[in-house]
Please model this.
Amino acid sequence: MRLPFSQQQFFDVFGRYNTRLWPIVVLLWIATFWFAMQLVRGRSTSNGLTALLTFHWAWSGLVYHASFFSAINPAASLFAALFVVESAILLWLGVSRRVDFVWGHTRRHKIAAVLIAYSLAYPVLVLASGHEYPRAPLFAVPCPTTLFTCGVLLAAVHRVPIVASVIPVIWSLIAGSAAILLEVAPDAMLLIAAAAIAIAAMAPRPSASPPLLVTSSEPRRP
Model:
């Protein structure tokens, strides 16, 4: 596959992004870590999680893709549109209360834990794979955003509407190729995330919620 930009140009984009916006990147990592811990402890609300996901996708679309990546990739405007659409879908899920997130001991939750932990560890994994700061994808960019989203969606009590999983799967397949083409080894996990979320989107869920450690503080939608 021939890319419209060089590997050096690709990492230069991250260099500019991280240099200019590092305080927001750090704050988003802290906020995401806090929400992840609240989810595991049963103290988070579904509205809070969907609001966080909504912001992540809007930020990656409008700031990373539209404002930075578009300088070297003509397809960035399309990617930005996809991310904004996913942000709107997640907002709709939260406002309409179509999802409830809880934590339990099921196999699905174990996979969710791996993806969420991986997304938070993503900056360290990227740096450990040989890339240097600031010219490296770290956080508040599309790939860790997608990994975190897939993990959270797997923690939904009932099956998430398929429309919410389509764009994360598409992006996982597109960006997963970066593991080879652009030598970003941690992005290989996106292919696993795509498979997990696609299977979860089609698999039936029991009408009753699985055994849980703790539950969300929000009342269940009738």
Summary: The chain has one domain: 7-205. Confidence is low (pLDDT under 50) at residues 207-222. Strands lie at 103-104, 212-214. The first strand starts at residue 103 and ends at 104.
